[in-house]
Design brief:
heterodimer; A: 0% helix; globular; B: mainly beta; 0% helix
Chain lengths: 115, 114
């Protein structure tokens, strides 16, 4: 099976712009989670989608949003970019075990740099 | 909420020696503990995991132990090789309200010196 794919791999934006990142989960996985990774904060949970519905959300401002399509592909959007949004954004997909998402498999990430 | 502490933050070992990374968690409801390896420029890759009904699991040179009473779990890498150099993350996971809550440790940068 192909792994989790994320596009683009690298992005450079300026403050105030907005950005959309894309994630394609492993075939058959319906749960997609997004994380922000920075050197000082580690892996911070953004949100999780399952069957096109956001089921769980981390402590990030409303500038961070996401959605999931019927084929389980997911996008996340960051509006009004700030310098502090520079990070590696990781997507992880999960299958279901007894109705609950199980092991997460990560994609390679999108490196976002905000200038 | 769940809190996961991971130690040490950096670890240097000679090739062939063993490496041990330790994590503690706070919420006894956590029942699944994966370990991830992240190499430079890549996403975290699952290397081993353990569930709360098991005390130890081994896969070749890698083993994980879990002590539910003390709420800590450890990663053991034996006969380390230069390609083991990476950042390792532990995580504690629980099922909460119909979805999975995963909390990660801060990571351990392992350097294996040839």
């Amino acid at each position: 099976k192909a792994g989790v794919t994320q596009t683009p791999r690298y992005l450079i934006k300026t403050r105030g712009q907005q950005v959309t990142l894309s994630c394609s989960p492993i075939s058959g996985h319906r749960s997609v989670s997004w994380y922000q990774q920075t050197p000082g904060q580690g892996l911070q949970f953004l949100f999780e989608y399952f069957s096109e519905t956001q089921r769980n959300k981390g402590n990030f401002p409303g500038r961070f949003s996401g959605r999931q399509f019927s084929n389980s592909r997911s996008e996340m959007n960051v509006s009004t970019l700030e310098l502090g949004d520079s990070a590696l954004y990781l997507c992880a997909s999960s299958s279901l075990l007894a109705g609950v998402a199980d092991t997460q498999y990560f994609g390679p990430g999108t490196r976002l740099t905000v200038l | 909420g769940e809190n996961v502490e991971q130690h040490p933050s950096t670890l240097s070992v000679q090739e062939g020696d063993s490496a041990v990374i330790k994590c503690t968690y706070s919420d006894s409801a956590s029942n699944y503990f994966p370990w991830y390896k992240q190499e430079l420029g890549k996403g975290p890759q699952l290397i081993i995991d353990i569930r709360s009904n098991v005390g130890e699991k081994k896969d070749q040179r890698i083993a994980v132990t879990l002590n539910k009473t003390a709420k800590h779990f450890s990663l053991h890498i034996t006969e380390t090789q230069p390609e083991d150099s990476a950042v390792y993350f532990c995580a504690a996971s629980m099922n909460s309200g119909g979805y999975q809550k995963v909390t990660f440790g801060i990571g351990t940068k392992l350097q294996v010196i040839p």
